[in-house]
Amino acid sequence: MKVNLTFLPRPQFRPYLNRKERWAAVVAHRRAGKTVACIMDLIKRASENRQREPRYAYIAPTYTQAKDVAWAYLKEYTAAIPGIEKSESELFVALPHNGARIRLYGADNYDRLRGLYHDGVVIDEAGDHDPRAWPEVIRPTLSDRRGWATFIGTPKGDNDFHTIFERSRREPGWFSGELKASKTGLIAEEELEDAKRTLTPEQYAQEYECSFNAAVLGAYYGRDMEMALDEGRVTKVPYDRSADTFAAWDLGIGDSTAIWVFQIVGKEWHWIRYYENNSQRLDHYVDWIKSLPFGVHKHFLPHDAEARELQTGNSRVEFLEERELNCVVVPRHNVDDRIATARVKFNRFWFDEKGCEAGIRALRMYRAEYDDKHKTLKPRPLHDWASHGADAFGLGAMGGEEMKQKAPIPRPDTNWVA
To answer: How far is residue 399's CA from residue 348's CA, in Å, rounded to a whole number?
Structure first.
């Protein structure tokens, strides 16, 4: 049986749709049609697959985004296939002739993909995904079937998507595509001129000209981090044996836990280690702390660490103190105070570029939530993968400022190796 899917791709996407490479990265301006092109690519490849029970996935930053952005297209372009199976509750379609299934997922719950296999995946707005989602979960799902992957999106600063796109431009086995509004001709010139008048130059460069260098809209620490980079304060920062060492925790329950380790040396703050993980018991993070080649003299914890668990009757503060960690609970405060405290002293912050790589990336991407309806920033941070590291960072700034006013901390007479 032959079925006409009545799809005529835009010429700008034909090179992508005809690619032979296993991996692909496509940076495209807003309204270029990248979602439609990728959905049709999934349908075409799924329909031609002759392996047993083919599986394909479209993965957006959140499950809601996947449904809002791609579900209508997936249903529309498979509607002409006789016997097509659709699931509104699970967001998948199944092709009748070979059992191939195309399903939508959200990277906000990427652990749901563990243990699955895929013949191909599209990762939409890759820069908004948790950086661990691809290497730890999604990439392994492609191994046994030698599946392919496409990363698509619009730039949002120097994030993982930027790294992937640059890799696609220089390494064999990659298809690399860049569609700027000034070159594609997909958006009328008068519309682009109106966008230039409406948006800031940075916004226009990011959204329409595919610039990764433009400041991320609403980023709290974006300019501060750029200044730190320009001034050489993101470099190799050694541990100082003569200074106290602190750790600031953002504790997650069923969510990520993030830890910054830092020292205050004179007027400078040295951020020397960063660690984050999820779905781990507290023992895991204690083990990480004790694996460091130096002692941590005080640990700053958020106020909710004092809450007692119903099952054990103990708080997380008590748990950590039982394991010989010297803990201080930072009094409850609002997020604006935490951000302001960090920003006011940011010009004194130094970061170890290797030990804090993931944390630095989180700080650069920590931003205010955007109201798409009113085209304004909301007065609260976006809760995504970057917020855990940023919350721990702000907590450390608040806790460390208090410690500067107090007497030196007695060194523990343990087996720490300096």
So the answer is: 16
